[in-house]
Write a structure and sequence with these properties.
Strand content: 25-35%
CATH class of the largest domain: Alpha Beta
Structural class: alpha/beta
Number of strands: 12
Largest sheet: 7 strands, mixed
Number of helices: 7
CATH superfamily of the largest domain: P-loop containing nucleotide triphosphate hydrolases
Shape: globular
Order of helices and strands: EHEHEEHHEEEHEEEEEHH
Number of domains: 2
Radius of gyration: 20 Å
CATH architecture of the largest domain: 3-Layer(aba) Sandwich
């Protein structure tokens, strides 16, 4: 299963915004394949993404000669791999892709040189030249489990546009022990919290045909959050 999304022709600010939203969804085990010709901005995008994961700008260079570069970016360890100089697929086995993914996330430039070693679940970012030299045509392809997650990323981008936060600075926030993730939005002196709460699966029946989430009265979607939010606002209190 795969999904392709043409994001559009982005300038550096637009590319940075896309990287900031993608950073919110990344977790240990993810592989991001960066595809594009020389000079299309693969390393630039990697730098932006690493910076948003780390919580601030990072100085990184393409590991063209070292082949792999490791970054401790706080909440995630990142292994940045450049396959441009690989002579054959056998050399790819020495890069330790599985070990790197087990420890954090993997960014791969020139992934087409190690196609056989790429995991079935991965996100591909395609960078191409556009008619405007200051912009790059950006597309994304979600393979395997990343197809559904890419749909989620599209929904987040659409939500910010519809809610009037299209130019917001997006910063990851430490969340709770749930599957939800959070980000702080700042724009024109305003601030808000973005909560990413994908619908939870019920899980197996445990007692009287009910799942654990039903027994424990866990929120399976955002309706409960919206109800509490509205109640707080009606009471004159501040709410996200």
């Amino acid at each position: 299963m795969s999904l392709r999304w043409t994001i559009g022709d982005l300038d550096l600010a637009g590319l940075d915004r896309f990287a900031s939203l993608l950073a919110l969804l990344l977790e240990v085990g993810d592989t991001i394949a960066l595809t594009g010709d020389l000079g299309t901005g693969k390393t630039t995008f990697a730098r932006l993404l690493v910076g948003h994961i780390a919580g601030g700008p990072q100085e990184i260079t393409s590991p063209t000669f070292t082949l792999a570069q490791r970054y401790d970016a706080g909440r995630l360890t990142i292994t940045h791999i450049d396959c441009y100089r690989l002579r054959d697929a056998g050399e790819a086995e020495e890069l330790g892709l599985d070990d790197a993914a087990a420890e954090g996330i993997v960014l791969i430039e020139w992934p087409e040189r190690i196609t056989a070693q790429l995991p079935p679940d991965r996100l591909e970012i395609i960078l191409e030249d556009s008619e405007d030299e200051a912009r790059r045509r950006v597309s994304a392809a979600g393979h395997g489990g990343w197809a559904q997650r890419l749909e989620r990323l599209k929904a987040l981008l659409a939500l910010l546009d519809e809610a009037g936060w299209s130019d917001a600075t997006v910063s990851w926030m430490q969340g709770d022990a749930s599957a939800r993730s959070y980000a702080r939005l700042e724009q024109d002196g305003r601030a808000a919290v973005l909560m990413n709460a994908p619908r939870r699966a019920d899980g197996p029946a445990l007692q009287d045909g009910r799942s654990y989430s039903a027994i424990a009265h866990l929120a399976e979607d955002v309706r409960a959050f919206v109800a509490v939010d509205m109640a707080l606002r009606e009471a004159g209190l501040s709410a996200p």
